[in-house]
Amino acid sequence: MTPTRFWLIRHALVAENARAMLYGVMDVPLCETTLLEQAPMYRSLAARLPRPADWLVTPLSRTRRTAETIFAHGYPAADLTEEPGLTEQSLGEWQGLPHADLPARLALPAHAFWPLGGHEKPPGGESMAEVIVRVGRTMERLATAHAGHDVAIVSHGGAIRGAIAHALQIGPDNALHMAVQNLSLTRLERTPEAWRVMCVNEAPGY
Fold first, then answer.
1. 56 forms bridges with which residues in the sheet?
2. How many CB atoms within 10 Å of residue 198?
3. To bridge 154 with a disulfide, which of 63, 141, 143, 199 should be the other Cys (CB 3.0-4.6 Å)?
4. Is the pLDDT of residue 76 over 80?
5. Where would I find the beta strands (DSSP E) of 59-184?
6. Handedness of CA 31, 35, 40, 45 (dihedral sign)
């Protein structure tokens, strides 16, 4: 059987004032300057992604704007379906805090490559462990709903790490060691037998 192929793209860089705080699932805008400067990266993605594909974004506007910018740089425009199950980790009451204010609120040690550890749960938010469960269930559902298709998804760093962790069956702290840069491509395949990781954090060429 033809595997279901997932092409996961992390959204573009957000505005500088948003990067100064913990924004989680806040609907922050993209950096307009970077959108112009990174035109070659969008052209590379437009040429790299499969045609046709089923396109998904999250309810946060930064993913839709990223997809629309890929279309504007050469990929034929497609319908965008919102998938809430692939949105970013909610940081609950900590959203909007300056990064420097977070350490005093942590109950567990911070992660080397993420503001908080994999099992830390912000008040009113979710832990990375919970993100992996949420995203894993979503990916299994999508693999069935889009069986045998190419699926292009513009999502978020935390959610993409969650998808990789689900595919590899690893824990949240291990998942947070994986780099997922803005506009990078991660490819996963779902066969009837298992998940397969094809690439992680592939940077668009020029």
1. 81, 153
2. 15
3. 63
4. yes
5. 80-82, 150-155
6. positive
